[in-house]
C-alpha cells in the first residue's frame, strides 16, 4: 500500500497526476460534467459552498486545508480583511495555489507546507476551516478531523466535501484505482464521516450525499466571537 503523504509530496506525481486533477477542478465547466459522469454527483454545489469564504467578516481567520491548487481562495473578495491560511502537504500544489492569489490579497494569504494530522497552529485559532475534495486524499481522515476541531474556535465551522464509498458503483471502481496509485487514502462512507465528526467533538449541522459525494458542515459547540 502506498504512503499517500509521500505520494503527494513527490514532485513528479504532483506536477502530473496531481496537477491534472487540480486543473479539472479549477475549471467548473469541466468539473461539473466529470462529477456527473464519474461520481454521479452535481459538483456545482461544492463551488457554491466555496463562496462562503467571501462572506466572512473582517478579522475572521480562515484555514483552507488541504488547499490543493488554491481553488477555494479564488472566492475571496477584493478588499476583504481576513486572515487566510492555505495549507497543503505538497510543495507543488502550494506553488499552484500561490499563482491563484489576486494581487490585491497577496499580503493576506499565508501558505504553510505540512500535514493536516499535525498542524502548526494553536488551539482555537480559526473561525472557519474549508476542506474541499480533501478527506478522501488523506491517510487518516479521522485524525485530520480531530486536528481541525482542535484548531477551531468555539462556534467555528468545518465546511467541505469528499468522495464517499458505497454510493455509486462506477465511483467505487474509480476510487479503488486512485487508492492503488496512492492518490487517494482509505476514504470512508457517510457513516464513517459521522463518526469522524462526533469523535472530534463537533456538532454535525449538515451531512448528506449526492451520488458519491458527501457535503458537510460541522461546528465546534460554543459561541463564536465572529458573526456569521
Automatic annotation (TrEMBL):
SUPFAM superfamilies reported for this sequence: S-adenosyl-L-methionine-dependent methyltransferases
GO molecular function, one term: S-adenosylmethionine-dependent methyltransferase activity
Residue span, Methyltransferase type domain: 63-159
Pfam families: Methyltransf_11 (PF08241)
InterPro entries with a match to the protein in the record: Methyltransf_11 (IPR013216), SAM-dependent_MTases_sf (IPR029063)
Coiled-coil intervals, chain numbering: none
Protein name, as recorded: Ubiquinone biosynthesis protein
UniProt keywords, alphabetically: Ubiquinone
Amino acid at each position: 500500500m502506498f504512503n499517500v503523504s509521500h505520494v503527494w509530496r513527490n514532485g513528479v506525481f504532483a506536477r502530473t497526476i496531481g496537477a491534472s486533477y487540480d486543473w479539472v477542478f479549477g475549471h467548473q465547466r469541466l468539473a461539473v460534467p466529470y462529477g456527473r459522469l464519474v461520481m454521479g454527483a452535481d459538483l456545482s454545489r461544492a463551488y457554491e459552498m466555496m463562496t462562503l469564504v467571501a462572506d466572512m467578516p473582517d478579522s475572521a481567520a480562515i484555514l483552507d486545508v488541504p488547499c490543493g491548487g488554491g481553488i477555494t481562495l479564488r472566492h475571496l473578495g477584493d478588499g476583504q480583511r481576513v486572515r487566510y491560511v492555505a495549507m497543503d502537504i505538497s510543495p507543488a500544489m502550494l506553488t499552484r495555489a500561490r499563482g491563484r492569489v489576486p494581487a490585491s490579497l497577496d499580503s493576506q494569504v499565508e501558505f504553510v507546507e505540512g500535514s493536516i494530522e499535525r498542524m502548526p497552529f494553536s488551539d482555537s485559532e480559526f473561525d472557519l476551516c474549508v476542506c474541499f475534495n480533501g478527506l478522501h486524499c488523506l491517510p487518516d481522515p479521522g485524525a485530520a478531523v480531530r486536528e481541525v476541531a482542535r484548531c477551531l474556535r468555539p462556534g467555528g465551522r468545518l465546511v467541505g466535501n469528499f468522495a464517499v464509498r458505497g454510493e455509486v458503483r462506477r465511483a467505487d471502481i474509480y476510487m479503488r484505482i486512485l487508492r492503488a496509485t496512492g492518490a487517494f487514502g482509505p476514504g470512508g462512507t457517510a457513516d464513517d464521516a459521522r463518526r469522524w465528526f462526533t469523535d472530534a467533538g463537533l456538532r454535525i449541522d449538515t451531512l448528506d450525499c449526492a451520488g458519491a459525494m458527501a457535503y458537510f458542515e460541522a461546528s465546534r459547540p460554543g459561541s463564536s466571537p465572529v458573526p456569521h
